[in-house]
Amino acid sequence: MALKAAVVPVTPFQQNCTILWDDETLKGVVVDPGGEVPHLLKTLEHLKVTVETILLTHGHMDHAAGADELREVTGAPVVGPHLADAFLLEGLVAQAAKYGMEGARVVTPDRWLTEGETVRIGEESFEVLHCPGHSPGHVVFVNQALRVALVGDVLFRGSIGRTDFPYGDHAALIEAITTKLLPLGDDISFVCGHGPGSQFGVERQSNPFLQG
């Protein structure tokens, strides 16, 4: 069995919606469907992937505003983020309206996540880590055997998630990165919410926000 991945940028924010699937069964997940659901459905059809789960890393509109529509079409449950992001998911339509984004829907997950739980992607199990700071309920998905992580807006190549929101917490974000992510190993590659991915080791050594 091998997991395959496709990254589909969506919304004006070019958020990395990630499709992960089992290459043998063609069953998989969609991570952070922020919008442009018809485009995502065409991609899934092209890949011949059946969606079993919709995973959310956090409650911002560019990551979650298309989740309810995708659930309606596919029948797949929405899983995550942590309950602390409930207020963001309840405000998705208002969030989107501020930026002229159409089609956003409020979404209530079928299952909230807490640290230490796992989620299945194909036959693989991904550990859930609660990494607040960018948002209170942000979660990260890690598979240590495959040396891969889905980090949402916690960590980027050369940068970190914004914390200038009223609920942001810079210190909490840095603590989550330095105590939960980096210790997992320099060789872990990650997909982030925007832009190109990287490896924890590269960011540990060169990310200006993680020095000193």
Report on the structure:
With 212 residues, this protein is an alpha+beta fold. The chain has one domain (3-210): Metallo-beta-lactamase, Chain A, CATH 3.60.15.10. The protein is built from 7 helices and 13 strands. A 6-stranded mixed β-sheet has the order 6-7-8-9-12-13. A hairpin with a 4-residue loop joins strand 2 (15-22) and strand 3. The radius of gyration is 16 Å and the shape is globular. 46% of the residues are buried. The mean pLDDT is 97.
Task: Provide a compact summary of the structure.
The protein is of the alpha+beta class. The chain has a single domain, classed as 4-Layer Sandwich (Metallo-beta-lactamase, Chain A), CATH 3.60.15.10. The strands form 3 sheets. Strands 6-7-8-9-12-13 form a 6-stranded mixed β-sheet.
Detail the topology: elements first, then pairings.
Layout: E1 3-10, E2 15-22, E3 27-31, H1 37-47, E4 50-55, H2 61-64, H3 67-74, E5 78-79, H4 86-90, H5 92-98, E6 118-121, E7 124-130, E8 139-143, E9 148-152, E10 155-156, E11 159-160, H6 170-181, E12 189-192, E13 198-199, H7 200-206
Parallel strand pairs: 3-4, 4-5, 9-12
Antiparallel strand pairs: 1-2, 2-3, 6-7, 7-8, 8-9, 10-11, 12-13
